[in-house]
Amino acid sequence: MILTFEQEKRIIQTLLKKLNASGEEAGIVAEVLGEGDLRGFGSHGILRLPYIIRGIKRGTIVPQSKIKIVKETLATALIDGNHGLGHHVAVQAMKLAIEKAKKHGIGAVGVFNSNHFGIAGYYAEMAIKENLIGIVITTTDPLVHPWGGVEPILGTNALAVGIPAEPIPILMDMATSVASRGKILEAMKKGQKIPEGWAIDTEGYPTTDPEKAAKGALSPFGGVKGYALSFILEILAGSLVNAAVGKEVHGTLEPKSFCTKGDFMIALDPQAYTLVEEFKSRVKNFIVELKTSKKAPGFNEILVPGEPEFRTREKRLKEGIPIADEVWNELKQISQELGIDLNYLKDLG
Predict the structure, then answer these.
(1) CA torsion 14→19→24→30, rounded to 10°?
(2) Which CATH class name applies to 2-62+320-347?
C-alpha cells in the first residue's frame, strides 16, 4: 500500500478523534507519525498507531489529559504529562523550552508521566525552525545490556540534536543500541540471521540467532562508549525528571500499564553567544570543508547528520509512503471496529 502524506495524516486523525482525542492532539500525532514514515523511520510511523489505540482503549493513554507544570524557574520546567498522548505532550514541552530560550538563552524542560512520542528529531527540528539549537533525550523499556553485563537494563535511549544551518539543517537522531528490537523481530519472522554485534543471548554470548537475541539483550553501539552515553542519557531523561530508570521503565513497547519513561528537551539560543547569522556562516563553512574533503574508497560524497532522512522525505513526498500489508490490514480491522471506512478515507485523495 502506498499513501500520500496527507492520506496518512487524515487516517490517523480520524481514528484518534473517534477515540476522543482533540483535534489538536490528533493533528500533532498524525504530523509526527507521518514525518516518521516520510523520513524512513517506519518503526516510529503509522506502525505505532495500533499501539496508541490499544493504550487509549485500556486507559493507559489518556486523550485530552491536562498537562501540568509542577516545577519551574526562568530557564527550566518540569512537566507532568498526566499520561497524555506522548507526541502532544512532547510538543508542548519543546514549545516551552523554546519560549524560555528566546527569553533567557536556554530552556530545559523535563517530562514524566507521558508516552512514546515517535521520532525525537521532530522536536529538535521545532527548535531549528526558530533559529535555535534543539536537544532531545528520551528513554525506553529496558532492552540493552550494560557493558560487561548480560541483563537488559538500559533503554535504546534516543538522542536528537538539531542545529540551524544552510543549505539544510543538521539533524542527528539516533538510538544508543546497535540495532532496534524491531529489526531483531523482523529477522525472526523472515527466518534470517542477524549480524554479529547486534545482540547477545541469555548467557552473554554474541549471537546471530534472532530468537536467542529476542530472549537476550540488544548491544549498545560503539561498545563501552555507547554504553556510557546511554547510561548518562537515562539519568538525564529519567532520574533527573522524576521518571523511572532501568527495569522500572515500561509502557513504550506495549501500553499495558501507565508508561514510566521520561523525556528531556533543551533549546539553546545561539544569540546568547554570537550573532545567529555568523554562527550559521561558520557552520556552513565547516560543512563545506567536510563535504569537499577526500572521500574514502567506495564513497562519492560525505553527508551530514539528517541529510539521508531529508532526501528520503523529499522522495516520499513525491512518490508516496510505502505501508506494509500487515500494518494496513491491522488498521483496516481497527477501523472496522470503530465503524470507519478506511478505504473511503484513503480515496479522498
Answers:
(1) -50
(2) mainly alpha
